[in-house]
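Input record (Table S2, row 478):
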Amino acid sequence: HNNTTDLGSLIHKTGLTSKKSTSAVLHRSLHHDPHQAVHAKGNYLCLSNGQKIFDATGGAAVACLGSNDERVARALIQQLTDGVSYCHSLFFATVAVEQLASLLTSSTNNIMTRAFFTSSGSEAIEAALKMARQYFLEKQQPEPQRTHFIGREQSYHGTTVGALGVGGHRARRKLYEPMLSKNASFVSACFSYRGRLSVDEIDKAYVARLEAELEAEFQRVGPRNVVAFIAEPVVGAALGCVPSVPGYFAAMRRVCDKHGALLIMDEIMCGTGRVGPAPTAAYPNPLHAWQDPSVGVAPDIMTMGKALGGGVLPVAAMLVNERIVNVLAQGSGAFSHGQTYQAHPLACRAALEVQQIIKNDDLVSNVREQGALLGKLLKRSLADHPCVGDIRGQGLFWGIEFVQDKAIKEPFNPADGVATGIHELGMRPPFNISIYPGNGSCDGERGDHILLAPAFNVTKADIEHVVGTVTRVIETYF
Ligand code: PLP
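Output record (pyridoxal-5'-phosphate complex):
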């Protein structure tokens, strides 16, 4: 196949991408500048070289309404001219922030009673870790010995040192390992493709094994030392859109409850309608991944981000359930954490408008409908490809994992650069498509996958375009 060296020289020859760096910006690569985006509308990003790119991932599952939605623009202008552009949330409340919090807490049937807003997902995770710790310090019978967090292998919860410390993604942790919390450990992810003992291990047995593993980890660190177990209901970038096996989260909840620990769900990537959760009697208009019957249990603390503000402005959130809020209310009476830009009025106004559009346009139904089509068409056109090991996902959140040997699920190695190579190829004419590359899905270091996470308002024709183009990119690459 075209390895990265071949692709690198190709790119160099065409001069279409990855020009030598002349930028003053500290981009990811110090040698090549990324493409210059000059204009965006709907699903498309236009580059300075005239290319028109279909954004099939909305960045990293962020732009849930596509780009430059005029309704959001109008709301922001109104907020900037007639409302409040900034004020410190310590001293002032604003209508936009209050309305956004109400919309989010009521979307949980008020199981979660308070929302705390940050500028990024990583910061929402930091807030969640601190909130969980503060809960145990302020309970009527305080448990100050609870300092340990249990996460999952190959997981990612953010880039700041606290959030990275509860993520089990080995490659992402590697450079900073000595700086990361010693009070964190990891159990296996719930990962159908690679986690089952064999294809014969049925859901029930697999879940029972993972439940026993979590229980054993609680016992190893001392059950009364654990603050919380943290996991994504549908794993995003770290594994490539992996839904949990039905019954898994109920089992994890049982273990947490048994030992009095909290359950934190990270819905930064998979939440806010992204996975098109199925309606139930309790949640006829579900928004959160945990409301899907396959997850079926509510967290104590949850985080949201990405599609919360649709990429219009940086905004993320932590939602907290009543039990925790009550403990703090009867304890110190304050959450002992704060940031300059928390609950930023303009960012929250953007999120409010985005969330109202999702609700009023019933976009989660479209996510379910187009998501089912996306999954069906991807499987139809790529399942038999010799380098496609697995196609998995839910809603408008699909991952394709690549393997060198399908029979034994042999992953690619980091040096192969498969996912980034496929991304680069996709960005070139005639494909002109942006897909999200990920790696580490095998063991945290090896294993490549791509993610597809188009906007919630895509049409059938958009989905057919995405599948047709991605198929041609993959077939050309290998
Ligand atoms: N948690 C998950 C599941 C994520 O996917 C991400 C970002 O990719 C984060 C947390 C961190 O969010 P941010 O990049 O906004 O800090």
